[in-house]
């Protein structure tokens, strides 16, 4: 059964792989990977109504998986394949920050921490517990031995005061606020 499927669809799968990769070596690798999957799932072939559609789906999914794996491995655009015929929406976004973004984030973090240190002790602790230590309101309430309502109002006042202080400092405001 599987030999008949191979004989009938081998050329079709190869041309599909070639169209996707635009490279004969990659097309052959992809095709081999597709046929390995077909052999692995040989028991399903008997239940498939449209073998060509099933093979096309396996080929497309295998191609997407390989491409996504390559994108994850490649951190920089210059190392990614140039001749790729896939929709942009299929590309996996890179969640890592660029060096510039990391530096900017660190600078802003330092500026905010500097201003946070100028806050009154109670507001400073409340902000620290909530945003840095990531304690819940109930945990902060227990730590500071006050009601949750008090924690909420301290948090609100601390954020408002911190915002005022950041905006009042022209150098920091220009660094943080969008132009």
Automatic annotation (TrEMBL):
RNA polymerase sigma factor 70 region 4 type domain boundaries: 110-162
Claim: rRNA-binding is one of the keywords in the record: no
The species this protein was found in: Caryophanon tenue
InterPro entries for the chain: RNA_pol_sigma-70-like, RNA_pol_sigma-70_dom, RNA_pol_sigma70_r2, RNA_pol_sigma70_r4_t2, RNA_pol_sigma_r2, RNA_pol_sigma_r3/r4-like, WH-like_DNA-bd_sf
Recorded GO MF terms: DNA binding; sigma factor activity
GO biological process, one term: DNA-templated transcription initiation
This protein's name: RNA polymerase subunit sigma-70
Family: Belongs to the sigma-70 factor family. ECF subfamily.
Domain RNA polymerase sigma-70 region: residue ranges: 6-72
UniProt keyword terms in alphabetical order: Sigma factor, Transcription, Transcription regulation
């Amino acid at each position: 059964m599987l030999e008949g499927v191979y004989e009938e669809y081998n050329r079709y799968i190869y041309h599909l792989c070639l169209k996707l990769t635009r490279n004969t070596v990659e097309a052959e690798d992809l095709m081999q990977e597709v046929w390995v999957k077909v052999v692995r799932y040989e028991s399903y072939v008997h239940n498939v109504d449209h073998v060509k559609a099933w093979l096309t789906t396996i080929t497309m999914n295998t191609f997407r998986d390989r491409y996504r794996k390559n994108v994850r491995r490649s951190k920089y655009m210059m190392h990614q394949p140039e001749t790729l015929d896939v929709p942009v929406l299929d590309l996996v976004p890179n969640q890592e920050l660029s060096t510039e973004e990391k530096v900017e984030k660190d600078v802003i973090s330092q500026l905010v921490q500097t201003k946070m240190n100028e806050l009154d002790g109670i507001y400073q602790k409340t902000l620290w517990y909530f945003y840095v230590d990531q304690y819940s309101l109930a945990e902060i309430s227990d730590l500071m031995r006050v009601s949750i309502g008090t924690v909420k109002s301290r948090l609100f006042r601390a954020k408002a005061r911190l915002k005022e202080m950041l905006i009042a400092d022209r150098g920091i405001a220009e660094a943080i606020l969008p132009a």
